[in-house]
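SEVERITY: medium
COMPONENT: batch folding queue
REPORTER: lab tech (J.R.)

DESCRIPTION
The queue accepted two submissions in a row. Attaching both inputs and their returned structure tokens so the on-call engineer can compare them side by side.

ATTACHMENT 1
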Amino acid sequence: MRPGAEQHNAVGPQGRLRPRAETGAGRPDLAREPPGRRPAAFLDRDGVINVDHGYVYRQEDFAFVPGVLDAAADLARMGYALVVVTNQSGIARGYYTENDFHTLADWMRARFAEAGAPLAGVYHCPHHPDAGDGTLRRDCDCRKPAPGMLLAAARDLNLDLSRSALFGDKCDDLRAAQAAGVPLRVLLGKDGAAMPQDACPDALTSARHPSLAHALADPALRGRLLQCGVSPPPQAGAPEE
């Protein structure tokens, strides 16, 4: 964050402004959260869920990446809360409005629900540090690679970030996950068409696949997801059955 920059709210699952998210590269303190937390599968939107035509905000321009809904339903069956975390600087740039975004998000949520993959939350950042005019042109703690949206989701939805995964098509997606303490970070190809092109460091990337569907078909990655998703790890000292 730039010197003197203000901190601003991440926008939560129903479009309401959430309490200001934490900042910094450290893992959030989860020790005081109540038991029963579940892992999340965080999904970037443009390029991961839908084909990125550039600043998509209308239903007629929204095309799902092939296989993404079935793969998301697979994650839901594993026990993951599905959470979308998306930078939407088109709002700051004046290309579309918050209402436009929410109208499309509501339609998208309905399609996920119909596919057996209900979304636990849709979080977006409407800011940009350099583009646009007015109050949305600013530094914030919700625009990826900052972890604000993931941290807000963890608080709102009672998520266990230490057992969660993120699927994104940019290094900034993975950096946000790393800063939030999400251990499984999967780099996907843009629009599911080819292997990822972003040159993300290996230390940042758990796996690389063309699409979410390809990722879920990888036996090694699937095994890691199942290990975290089905049930919480046993508590220390608990008897094994």
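ATTACHMENT 2
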Amino acid sequence: YVKLSDCVFLFALKHPSQIYFNGILEIQCIFGGINIFGYILKEFNSKIVYSLLDSSALFIQTIESPKNASIDFTRYTHNKEDLRKIDTLLKQIEHNGCLFTLKPVSNLRYNLEQLFIKNNIYFVPNIVKSANALSYFNDVEYCLNCVFDFNVGERVQKKLIVDAKWENFIQYLTTDNNGRMMVCGGKGFGKSTMLRYLINSSLNLLPKIVLIDLDIGQPVMNVPNQISCHLVTQPLLGPNFTQLQPPLWSIFIPSVNVEDCMLQYLDALHKLSEICVQDDALKMHLGLSIPWDLAEELVYCCIKRQLNC
């Protein structure tokens, strides 16, 4: 890596490889392409990524992609020594990998800390610089306020593991621009993680995704006590409370437990389906009709099964 400034580092990864991290980083792809939580970050694009302690640790993964062989690295630094190091990095990866910059997002980290630290909840690592540290990334971690790790390491816990079957779902969703999928399951089984990965991967091929969120306890992009309809155009690179966005439509539910408000929940589901079916703008975005009756029937069956009634 090359330190471009006090808080910006240029990294090089040779393909194929990946690196996990905990922290909040702004990542910009400079050369090649990188996969972050299913989303392909292309050259000169940047995203803020939340890989927090209480969630699945995300990774930066190289991909095979066309390379821009005429990048002007003086836009990042005019230091001749840095430019020489960058040229060395390109030779080391044999132009078959990626270059990307990392920098901290201090204001977002501070806001999270102030929000949760009163309850002794920590979502970001507390990095202490140590001359005795064994980590190759010691100086980088201290400046970026994050922790790095490789596949077989133990420095980062709860590493995101992508199931190979997810690729089949992505192919189904994106093949004919008419795919529909319902994700349901028990608590703690990884529904939200898989859903975010599917959305991110689909956005590599589709301009937008319609998300109907029926989880009133822990919605993907909304606050609790609501079922909602979202038009997703940007990847979800972090847990739900870092990706809150205004819904197109939402309906309030008086409890976060479906068992406490079964009739209200089913009534709200029916109302949301009617609203979305009548929304001409949403139909235009989708370019297709939505099988709301099927979705409502599936949700009703799932609730019956959960309650054993």
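NOTES FROM REPORTER
The first strand starts at residue 2 and ends at 3.
No errors were logged for either attachment.
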